[in-house]
Write a structure and sequence with these properties.
Elements lengths: L2 H27 L15 E14 L2 E15 L5 E4 L11 E4 L4 H37 L1
Antiparallel strand pairs: 1-2, 3-4
Helix pairs in contact: 1-2
Length: 141
């Protein structure tokens, strides 16, 4: 596989993880926002990824490659939290306040995994660069 293909795969994965981290940040920022109705409450968002196979033509054959694409960012279907808080100004006529379906513990775990995946792809890019430099040094001798 060509260095360019490796860099393309790692770069697309880094972009996908950046979207994942931004989505997690949005979820955590809205984790405790209250709403007066179920329709108005913030709902957790999750990115949807896909590995897309690509073929790059070469003389005499094909070299397979791939990339990671973000297909969409969808809202979670988990139910929202309903809390009885009759003194809250956002409470409905039954005294219920609606809170997002964001689980901060799960979001933090997801954030650690996304950060680690991003770091791994940075390391891949760094190693590709090192290999390219070593290859250039071979030509100097």
């Amino acid at each position: 596989m060509a260095f360019r293909n490796i860099s393309h795969i790692a770069g697309s994965a880094m972009t996908a993880q950046a979207v994942r981290l931004n989505t997690i940040a949005s979820n955590l920022a809205n984790a405790n926002t209250a709403a007066g109705s179920e329709a108005e409450v913030y709902r957790a968002r999750k990115p949807v990824f896909a590995a897309v196979a690509e073929r790059h033509g070469l003389v005499g054959g094909q070299i397979p490659g791939a990339s990671v694409r973000v297909l969409d960012v969808v809202q979670s279907t988990e139910p929202v939290r309903k809390v009885y808080e009759p003194d809250n100004p956002l409470a409905n006529e039954e005294g219920i306040v609606f809170y997002p379906n964001v689980n901060p513990v799960a979001e933090m775990t997801d954030m650690m995994a996304a950060s680690r995946a991003f770091e791994t792809n940075v390391e891949v890019m760094s190693r590709v660069k090192s290999m390219q430099q070593a290859l250039l040094r071979l030509g100097e001798e």
